[in-house]
Structure formats: structure tokens, C-alpha cells
Amino acid sequence: MADRITLEVARFRPELDTEPVLQSYEVPLREHWAVLDGLSYIKDHLDGTLSFRWSCRMGICGSCGMTVNGDPQLTCATFLTDYAPGPIRIEPLRNFPVVRDLIVDIDDFMAKLPTVKPWLIRDVHSPIEEGEYLQTPDELDEYKQYSMCINCMLCYSACPVYALEPTFIGPAAIALAQRYNLDSRDEGASERAEVLASPEGIWSCTFVGECSAACPKGVDPAGAIQRYKLTAATKSIKDLLMPRSAR
Questions:
Q1: Is pLDDT of 224 > 90?
Q2: Residues 91 and 190 in one domain
């Protein structure tokens, strides 16, 4: 195996460039180096002007998501040897405005996330001295998968609906809403329904499934969306057939 590999990195410097351009760098090809290690090598040894996001290097923070050879990936969990002999093309996540080089603007997601109220909602809070709201293992299993989301935005980058309809709330936000809808301690499902069941919510999804394929944590946002479609459709039928009970 060769001891070096070429990274073709998208560069966008708004003060110089009108659109991203690829720039090639040779980095050491080491067995345990992730793509993020290759980018750090460039930053530290070859070109200190390269800009990208990272934090934990452990697949937890979600900040190092980028497009690697056309696919959205966490660069801390994607290894250089998987792409040998190269070259490896590294670009910013698709479907987001590029701020600089490999950094994208996620303000749209940050604005949409609170609209689905991804937090516990209760009509009445028991006094602290009465203790915790306990759950059974089965109740935890209902929502645990959807709680694994790390807000890495890979699902938005992979989603063809979000690419065409930027008003779409998006897979991660809906999956996070489901995490709370399915939590036995939560009483806020009706407050989330107006947003989730809107044209910009679940009904925009055409169930391509790319979001679930891209998710590094197995959250399955496509499954969360389809599950809520059933919930919303069932409620609509009940409201139609039993309008008094709906009120």
C-alpha cells in the first residue's frame, strides 16, 4: 500500500472566489487515520488557511460532517484507507450555504428545530419531593432510537426533498419530535401536531430513505416520519368520524 494519498479539498474563500474550487494535497496514508486526520494534517503542515469544523473526534458532537466522494459522512469516522489509493474528494455538506471552505451555514436547521418543541412538555408537574417520572424498559425502547440523533445534518444533506423544498422541516427535526411524542413522560404531542402535520412537515417526505441511509447513529428518521404519518392519518379519520370526541 502506498504511504501517501491525495485529498481533493473544496476551497471557498468568499473574498477571493465566486464558487468553490478543488485544491489537491498529499497527506500520509496511515492505517488508523480518519479523513479528519488528513484535514488536520493539511491545516497543521501544508495550508493553515483551510477552514473546517470539528470538535470531539469521537462521532458524538456531529460537527465534522462533510461530503466525502459524494456521500455525506462524519469525517472522524471515515478512514483514509477505505478510499485508497485515492484520490479522495472532500466537499462541504450539500443543501446548505457554504460559509468558507468546508464550513456550512446551518441557521435554517437551528430555526426549524424549536418549532417542533423537542423537549418534554407536561400539563402538570409533580412536586420534586414525589420523585422522578419512572419508565419501564419497554417505555424507554419506544423512543430510544430517535434520541440518538447528534444533529450532524448528514440527513439534510442526503435528503432530495430538502434540496428541492427548503421549507421542509426536515428529517432530523421530525425524528427529534417523535423522540418526545413517544416518551411516556411527555404530554406535548398535540402541541407538535400542527407543525409536524403541516405541508412543510411529514407530508413533504416522499420516503426516498436517503436520510436513514446517511445517518451515522442508526436513528432512522425516514421510519420516524412514516410512523408519524400513520399517527396523523389515524387522527384525521377519527376527527372526521367522531368530531365531538376530537374536541
A1: yes
A2: no
